[in-house]
Amino acid sequence: MRMRIGQGYDVHRLVTGRPLVLGGERIDFERGLEGHSDADVLLHALGDALLGAAGLGDLGQHFPPSDERWRGADSVDLLRRIVELVHGAGWRVVNADLTLLAEAPRLAPHRDRIRARVARVLGVEVAAVGLKATTNEGLGAIGRGEGMAAFAVALLAAESDAP
Ligand code: MG
């Protein structure tokens, strides 16, 4: 079976006066991530992993921050568009694994909701979406709570080899 793996990374600054959106879910927190879109750091890392695996470039290329069209964009919508591109290139998603780096808030209460939402968009079962969170142990900008970062990997299989 022909397979491709991709990895993605993203980071956004935390600011007051913005809602916090992670994995497509609004999270109750005193600050939110700053960005041109909804700044959903988890979905941006995932989108880059998917695009990278399919050899389709990166998020900035498909949804440039210079384009007013993407101002305030819902990253779930961007992810849907990416999955369409991936399918169009002859690939299906096998699984994805995400790691959030954040000092706060705790991700655990939201984990299953986010996994279910991401799984629906990717067209995979919930078990095929991993979601982990870790603090940065107080080290560096992430450790000081100035922002959040995320890593993602995604595996694709050639549609033509699908069972
Ligand atoms: Mg981003």
Summarize it.
By secondary structure, the protein is an alpha+beta fold. Helices cover 29% and strands 31% of the residues.
Q: What does this entry look like structurally?
A:
The protein has 163 residues and is an alpha+beta fold. The protein has five helices and seven strands; from the N terminus they run ββββαααβαβαβ. The strands form two sheets. The protein has a five-stranded mixed sheet with strand order 4-1-7-5-6. Strands 2-3 form a two-stranded antiparallel ribbon. Helix 4 links the parallel strand 5 and strand 6. Helix 1 packs parallel to helix 3. The longest helix has 14 residues. The mean pLDDT is 96. The site of magnesium ion (MG) has 5 residues, from strand 1 and helix 1. Magnesium ion binds next to strand 1 and helix 1.
